[in-house]
Amino acid sequence: MLNSLLWALLVPLLTVAGTFLGLYAGVWLSVVVIMGAAATAGIVAGGVWHRAGAALLAVAAVMGLGFFSGPTLHEAYLKRFGDRVDALVVDTAERERVRGGDRDVCRVVDTSGEVRDLGERHNCYGQFEPRQHVVLFKDPGGGLDPWIEASGDRGLDVVSLSWTGGLFAGAVGALAYGGVRRRSDAEREAVKRRAYARARGVRG
């Protein structure tokens, strides 16, 4: 039981840690960690514990957790610990993605005169207008790009937090279920073997 719970907690925690480190080291680190965590969940639940349904659910939850936890952690960290800086939206635009489609970009200038182009992963989704006053939440260590908001409110997005928390719980639950059912199957097999052994002893 303890081994199953350790796996159930380790894989989602590794996913969250990888996405947070990816904010600093780059998106490719996050991708590698998420894929590795998803593969581990599938191998442990499906290959070792022989629970295909639990494995499928765990892999889906881990992949979703990796997708949602990055922006959620970015926002949560900067809004809780970041420095609030007044800024002005100089211009907004839509730029073509390399793989097709458009992405929103906000060009902002803060009170120090620094100009930045912020995109969707910085909370620019076309909701800002040119010459609009905004607030940037800046990383005190300078390692993360700022998070842009219309006001200086440090409240967090409840929807993204709910999705992240739900997917984390889903991954833990799927792996824990697979581990517990694996244990139950092993116990049942042991009972069957003992019963078969007793039956043979009686007949003998």
Quick take:
The protein has four helices and five strands.
Question: Can you tell me about this structure?
Answer:
Helix 1 (2-25) runs antiparallel to helix 2 (27-48), helix 1 (2-25) runs antiparallel to helix 4 and helix 2 runs antiparallel to helix 3. The protein has two domains: 2-70 and 157-203, no CATH class; 83-138. With 204 residues, it is of the alpha+beta class. The protein starts with a helix and ends with a helix. It has a five-stranded antiparallel beta sheet with strand order 3-2-1-4-5. Helices cover 60% and strands 18% of the residues. The mean pLDDT is 89. Strand 4 (133-138) and strand 5 form a beta hairpin. It has helices at 2-25, 27-48, 52-81, 158-203, and strands at 83-96, 102-110, 115-118, 133-138, 147-149.
What tags apply to this protein structure?
alpha+beta, 2 domains, five-stranded antiparallel β-sheet
The number of distinct β-strands equals 5
Q: H/E element string?
A: HHHEEEEEH
The Rg value, from CA coordinates, equals 24 Å
Shape: elongated
Number of domains: 2
Distance between the termini: 37 Å
Portion in beta strands: 15-25%
Kindly name the structural category.
Answer: alpha+beta
Largest sheet: 5 strands, antiparallel
Number of helical segments with 4 or more residues? 4
List low-confidence stretches. Answer: none
Mean pLDDT: 89
- Fraction of residues in H or I helices: 55-70%
Strand order in space, largest sheet: 3-2-1-4-5
